[in-house]
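Hey all, quick one. A colleague (J.T.) asked me to put the flavin mononucleotide job into the tracker so the inputs and the structure tokens live in one place instead of scattered across chat threads. No bug as far as I know, just bookkeeping. Sequence used:
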Amino acid sequence: MKLLHIDSSISGAESVSRQLSASIVIRFKDTLPGLGVSYRDLVADPVPHQSPATRFAKLKSLYEAGALDGKIGEVVAAAMRGGAPVDASAQDEVAATNVALDEFLAADIVVIGAPMYNFGIPSQLKAWIDCLAAPGKTFSYTATGVEGLAGSKRVIVASSRGGFYSAPSPMAFMDHQETFLTSFFGFIGVTDITFVRAEGVNQGPEQRQRALESALAEIAVLKAA
Ligand SMILES: Cc1cc2nc3c(=O)[nH]c(=O)nc-3n(C[C@H](O)[C@H](O)[C@H](O)COP(=O)(O)O)c2cc1C
């Protein structure tokens, strides 16, 4: 069994989400003998943001899979005749995107350190998620609508936020961090998603400690299956 560990906090050793995601990985290592773990720090080792090259590569794969027809198919075909972005940096971007996607596809369990930044997720994490949105790999278009293809994976999110956003907080409507992650992973078919949450960590040292202890207590009893 393989686990992919992702971190995205810019706060280094002070990071709450990094502490929680590392604890989750230790918990899984303890409970799943032989577990293979790979790690990507999206701050130290970022993936490229979307670009004309990565967009072209995605359209091309859709076109080759016969998933584009009508006007859009003509547009893509014309774009390909007009020449793909072939310079070395464009090729590197597409390759790096595919490496991130392959790392995700190879994993059975994905542990994601995901702080709330400005009510959403860090842009580094968003760029990684953009790599995963791959037609034909993580979702497909069918006659009855979109079908997620990543349904066999389990995702555990180590969520940290300075304020309180869980219901019944009046701030709940401003949570575009956990709600976004739930929506995206749901879109690609993941139904087994768990949030381990430390909230209110910027509301004084006592609350920070309480939030951390409560999240670590949840991790201590996290079931491997
Ligand atoms: C750039 C930045 C933006 C932030 N935006 C929010 C926010 O919108 N809402 C909030 O409650 N906390 C916000 N915070 C506080 C973080 O969510 C909190 O410090 C959390 O612990 C960050 O996770 P980390 O410690 O793993 O970096 C922000 C922190 C940073 C550095």
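Adding what we noticed when we looked at it: The mean pLDDT is 91. The pocket of flavin mononucleotide is lined by residues 9, 11, 15-18, 115-119, 160-163, 201-202 (CB under 6 Å).
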